[in-house]
Design goal:
By secondary structure, the chain is an alpha/beta fold. The protein is about 45% helix and about 15% strand. Strands 2-1-3-4-5-11 form a six-stranded parallel β-sheet, sandwiched between helices. Strands 7-6-8-9-10 form a five-stranded parallel β-sheet. α9 links the parallel β6 and β7. InterPro entries: HTH_LacI, Lambda_DNA-bd_dom_sf, Peripla_BP/Lac1_sug-bd_dom, Peripla_BP_I. Keywords: DNA-binding, Transcription, Transcription regulation. This is LacI family DNA-binding transcriptional regulator. One of its GO terms (molecular function) is DNA binding.
Amino acid sequence: MKRITIKDLAKMLNISTSTVSRALKDHPDISSSVKRKVKEAAEALNYVPNDFAISFRKNSSKVIGLIVPEISMFFLPSIINGISSVLNKEGYRFFILSSNDSYETEKEHIETCINSRVDGVLISLTNETKDAEHLKRLKEMEIPVIIFDKTVPQHTFESVIFDNIKTAEQCAEKLIDQNCNNILAIFGDENLEITQSRLRSFENRIRQSPAVQLHILFCKSADMVKQKLDILLDDHSFDGFFAMSDETLMGLHSSLIKKNLNNTNKKVVAISEGTLPKYLDETYEYQINDGYRMGTFAATKLMEAIRKSTPDVSEKPDSCYYL
């Protein structure tokens, strides 16, 4: 069925489109009888306002673009819930675009957001992204941007990230306090800044205890963790394990079960969103990276940027918020 427009209502009632528009808005200049006729016709014909046209006139779409590297069961759902909780209260909607960890796709998504007339963009960068030059297209279009979680060194856009140095150091201290002397630390993609910052902090803290042996493993996925540990766990006797994320923890947990090493005196410490360890093994210790908090904080900063009177919200560079 064809969508009924204001023009259709105006033609049927033999009045102007401006009169129909004002009658639907209950404008005081329109008589009660005309308002009644217009509203009755609109209801009878199932007239639905064109939100995009209204937004175009108001120069605000009330829509946010959310760009993420991938849709994953780890961490992302809690971030989305946090973002949604803020945007819903503000009367905003958002759509999610997955870059599939492709820099080229990420650039395409930025153009999609521009063409969709979004009021702002929340973006977590791909593993392939090395700088923020492509985000300057959004700045040119006066579209506020907040980078969250995965970022790159840059001094143009506000970003919200976790305090990876502090969190990794706390995990190392947990293992040291448990008197672990032979530790396997499992990190993610070694090319990522988040991996390197957690590695440096964890390694520096372990080095303060000369008696501790540290073995480091880099794995890009839970499956890769399982593959590497199938061999490694047969050749070494570790008494402590560190997983830098829920994804690496999932692979570690599966391997420990396979080797019948769960429910032993081996200590496992992870950086986690907080939900997964509770269901894997209650003895696992973890430092929480609260995805919901990150989502609410990033969305709140974006709302603040959108409300600023100056369109170019990126004039105050190098604002990085650590959670």
